[in-house]
Amino acid sequence: MLNHKLSEVEQEIVNMLFDDVEVSQPVKESTGKKQMLFTMQWEAGLHIPFDKQLLPTLQAACEKGLYTVQFFLGQKFSYKRTQLSDKDIQASQEFLTHYNMNVFTHAPYTINLAGSVDSLAWQGNTAIDTKVRQMIAALNHELRTVAQLSYYGNSGVVVHPGAFPKPEEGLQAIAHSINQIEFCEDSMLLLENSAGEGNSLARDFEQIATIIEGIDEEILPHIGVCLDTAHIHGMGQYDLSTIEGIDQMLTDFDSMIGLERLYLLHLNDSKVELGSRVDRHENLGEGRIWSESQESLRHLLQRIHEHRVSICLETPNNKELAAQGIQTSLMDMVKLQRLWEETQN
Ligand SMILES: [Zn+2]
User: Fold this and answer.
1) What is the pTM of this model?
2) Fewest CB atoms within 10 Å of the CB: 91, 120, 249, 260?
3) Which of the listed CATH numbers 3.20.20.150, 2.30.40.10, 3.30.70.120, 3.40.50.720 matches domain 44-343?
4) What is the pLDDT at residue 105?
């Protein structure tokens, strides 16, 4: 494994910049949030398209000034995952030693670790069990791939855990499926909250905590959580347009799951009403959460920064504007950067 050591000059600069902040070379914690080289570093980025190979994908992210990147390692709606060549992985690792980035992938939407909405896994239905084994094989591959990119940042594979009409049974089956995943060193699986649409599970912190409770002890260091703000809004338990709503959400998350498990924030505004149980992302400041005021968004940025949570925007690109060469998701990055700078004054 590559490991960057600070030269004396670099160490001196670091000491000069951060007198009272303990800053050192990145600590390679096994399956834990990484202590970044500069702890004040801006950690936001975007979901971007995967460009057939990893290196050009990371290079494109670098050109856009992203410090966090997420992409699909293959098809959105199929378990088929891309097999990266050793050459591509080595070149990407080398690239990451020069440009630190948090690298996340999003597992396919078709994964349902509960089995299917009609039939529960691990109850003797061989066809369903075979299907779930395919999902697990896809996750094994994706986790192994992403773990090799965990040098200087947070990393992991984000998954929508699954759906089933009876929550208790569904959550149990999901935990059982996760227990069969082969977690290699540095691999992290991040369970994402849902908007509560249909039979989707992991719709609140209690359900996520129930899944985690069912996971074997030795696997737990490989389990984290990805929170999606548009999904929280869709579910309707917390009003993220207010500072109180943000604080209440983080307090509850901490007591039910523990903030140390929060790795990634999918930062999205929402097109729909609070509590509508629908998952529709909107550009920052254009939706039902933050169009009136961005004060609570600034507050959220500050709060999650304390916990070294990476940020990934999954906001839409407006087609008409795209035709004029304007990428609205990139404009969101600029908005975010400005909001963050305001919190620093
Ligand atoms: Zn999301």
Assistant:
1) 0.89
2) 260
3) 3.20.20.150
4) 98
